[in-house]
Design brief:
The chain is of the alpha+beta class. It contains seven helices and 13 strands.
Length: about 250
C-alpha cells in the first residue's frame, strides 16, 4: 500500500494491476490480489478504518443529496459544478465534530449541536460569485415571531445594478430542514422587485406562515436582476448576478 499526493494525482478506480481509492483524505494505491476486495473490506480487522470511512461517507453523501434538492428552485437557474463537492466538504467537517458517536457512527446533526459545527455550517457560501451583502451594503435581521426579514441599507443610491439591469428582485425563502431524517419543507415570500434608483433605506420581506415540518429553521435571501424591454422584464442568468445567502438559523 502506498500514499500519493492528491495535488499531483487524482485517480479513483483501477489501472492495470493497481487500484486507487481515497481513505481519510489520502489517495491510496494497492496492487490487485493483495487482499483488497469486497470480502476483505467486510471482514478483515485491518480494513476497519475503510469500513468506518465508507459508512460515514455514505451518510454524508445521502444528506448532501437531500439538502441540494431543497435548493432545486434556485439552482435550476444557477449552474454550479462545484456545489456538490463544496457541500460534501462542509458536511464532512461538521460530521467530524460529532462529540458523541464513535468513529464510523459520526453524523452531521450531532456535529451541528456544537458551536464549532454551527460556525462551519453557517459560514458556507452558496453563491461564491454573487455576495448579496456586498451588493446591497445592508444589515439583515430575521424576526422569527413576525416571520419577517428586515433589510437596512445605509446608502440606497449605491446599491449595485449591473449594466443594462433596470430591476432588482429580492425574495425571502424559509427552509425547515430535519438533518436527522433528511426531510424538509419550504415557504416562499412574494418576490419584491425594485426599480433601479428607487431602492428604499428599509425593506421588509415576510412569509405568511411557517412550514409545518419540524427541524432547523433557515432563512435565505435570494437576489436576481432583470432588464425591462418592450414592457416586459427579462431575467439575467449570469452567475455573477444570481445570489443566495443564508441570513439566519434557528436551531
Amino acid at each position: 500500500m502506498a500514499k500519493l499526493n492528491k495535488g499531483l494525482l487524482n485517480i479513483k478506480g483501477s489501472i492495470g494491476d493497481y487500484t486507487f481509492y481515497e481513505l481519510n483524505g489520502q489517495l491510496i494505491v494497492r496492487k490487485k490480489g493483495g487482499g483488497f476486495n469486497t470480502e476483505a473490506i467486510k471482514t478483515k480487522r485491518s480494513m476497519a478504518p475503510t469500513r468506518q470511512y465508507g459508512k460515514e461517507f455514505g451518510g454524508c453523501s445521502r444528506l448532501v443529496s437531500s439538502y441540494r434538492n431543497s435548493f432545486s428552485w434556485f439552482y435550476q437557474h444557477h449552474k454550479d459544478g462545484s456545489l456538490h463537492g463544496r457541500l460534501m466538504s462542509m458536511v464532512t467537517k461538521v460530521k467530524n465534530l460529532d462529540p458523541v458517536s464513535v468513529r464510523g457512527e459520526r453524523v452531521f446533526y450531532r456535529g451541528l449541536e456544537t458551536l464549532e459545527g454551527r460556525s462551519v455550517f453557517e459560514g458556507f457560501v452558496y453563491t461564491p460569485k454573487c455576495s448579496i451583502g456586498s451588493i446591497l451594503g445592508s444589515k439583515f435581521s430575521m424576526d422569527w415571531d413576525s416571520l419577517k426579514l428586515r433589510i437596512e441599507t445605509m446608502f440606497p443610491d449605491q446599491v449595485f445594478y449591473p449594466k443594462g439591469a433596470t430591476h432588482l428582485e429580492l425574495q425571502l425563502v424559509v427552509l425547515v430542514f430535519d438533518f436527522q431524517r433528511r426531510v424538509y419543507e419550504i415557504e416562499f415570500a412574494t418576490p419584491e422587485q425594485i426599480e433601479r434608483g428607487r431602492f428604499p433605506g428599509v425593506l421588509e420581506l415576510g412569509i405568511s406562515e411557517m412550514p409545518k415540518e419540524k427541524g432547523t429553521r433557515l432563512s435565505f435571501l435570494a437576489i436576481r436582476y432583470y432588464e425591462m424591454s418592450g414592457g416586459q422584464l427579462f431575467a439575467y442568468h449570469n452567475q455573477d448576478f444570481l445570489g443566495l445567502e443564508l441570513v439566519d438559523v434557528w436551531y
